[in-house]
Design goal:
Elements lengths: L2 H7 L4 H4 L4 H14 L7 E5 L8 H5 L3 E6 L2 H9 L8 E5 L12 E7 L8 H11 E13 L2 H17 L17 H7 L2 E16 H9 L4 H4 L3 H19 L5 E15 L1
Parallel strand pairs: 1-2, 1-4, 2-3, 4-5
Antiparallel strand pairs: 5-7, 6-7
Helix pairs in contact: 7-11, 9-11
Bound molecules: S-adenosylmethionine.
The site of S-adenosylmethionine has 21 residues, from helix 1 and strand 2.
Length: 265
Amino acid sequence: MVKNVYYSKIADIYDQTRWLTEPIAEDVADFILTLVKANSETTFLEPGIGTGLNVLPLVRRGYSVTGIDVSQEMLNQFRQKLHSIPPNLKLIHGDASQLPFVDASFDVVLTVHMLHAVSNLGIFLDEIDRILKPAGFYLNAQWITPPARLEFEQHFKTILSKYQEPQSSQRPHRVINEINIEGYLRNKGYQCNYLIAKEWEVTNQIQELLSFYRSRAYGLCWLASDEAFHLAIEEFEALCHDHYGPLEVELSSQARFEIWAYTAS
Ligand SMILES: C[S@@+](CC[C@H](N)C(=O)[O-])C[C@H]1O[C@@H](n2cnc3c(N)ncnc32)[C@H](O)[C@@H]1O
């Protein structure tokens, strides 16, 4: 299953299967605005913007935000969060591997959970370097999976691996994307700072998490064949009953919004 196509298939449930809520995104926006010393002229680009979870607060506060995404369905989910598209938001449907902007176009480029999807990471980082203004910021971020959900995922992975050929767990573009981002950008003259923008508690019932897996909301489910997936999910449901007890049981643990902030030195 091609990953980019799959985001279109799960666009309508994407937000509920993740854990960055709107109030948390507001706090993260405060952090980012302070970090980049934003003023009313500061311009932002998010390649792989998806449903706009990360930048919606910036748009609402009037900052100039441009987003590119290969999935029209993901962009439509973002559009639905706004009564109409405000003049400070530009959404482009396309492949972010080639950024259609002139040199020195943006003050801040933000990527969140998307680098694994570009076809050539080196070229993509060159492009970011090209379109950033002097003294601009490249923020590569992730919201780490809360440990309790990671453990839940591990149970599923273990079961799924029994039904899969070993090579089918390989992710697309894996080899080409194995470059050291920090080293690569340091060679281009960037300094890197690792920052934690926000930590917060995430709570889900087992039955809710199970329903996300049934909907094949995560990459590990997409890469499995239909047959392997159906066998695995059946066994996983049985394991959930045995291991966790009633499916109304809640799992709680901490999530974290991490940023690797790159600035030209
Ligand atoms: C895991 S989602 C992350 C969305 C958003 N950044 C977030 O943090 O919620 C990855 C997004 O990248 C998009 N994407 C994947 N490959 C892309 C590409 N080559 N160009 C543009 N968008 C891409 C997908 O359609 C999807 O919306």
